[in-house]
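Slide 14.
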Amino acid sequence: MFISLDRQDYPAFLLEGQKTAEIMHDPILSDIIASARAGYARAGRRGLMDRLYAKQKEYYLQGRYDGIMLAKACALMGRKQEAMQPLEEAYNRHEINVLSCLSHSDLLTLRDDPRYVALVKKINFPLHPTGPSPIYLAAIGKQPLQGSSTPH
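Slide 15: predicted structure.
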């Protein structure tokens, strides 16, 4: 589902989202996808993203939706400052999925933001025991991410 969103294949994203919601018996995801589908039918990509963001934020504020996915939607929409809040909250709650901000290509677009750099430094998640990971170094601007054009 999210790979399709990363690739901007919106019909596939909506189809996979619907399948995922059905398989997981997830009424929240089902509502989010239905809203995104209505937005896409009305206004294409912009409508999809507006409705996806609005529903994700609604559920996030209720404490019923993952902040990393909301941050991803914010980043996709260019709302970089807003994307930082759920990432920082996830870190402060010690949520394991905050580590994904080191690999989501959309979240790596935040790497010039001082708040993002500070968050990545706090995480300090090396992939190799001898030093910091290439993803971590790329996120703080120390070296380019190798193979970063490959969708994750």
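Speaker note: The two ends are 12 Å apart (CA to CA).
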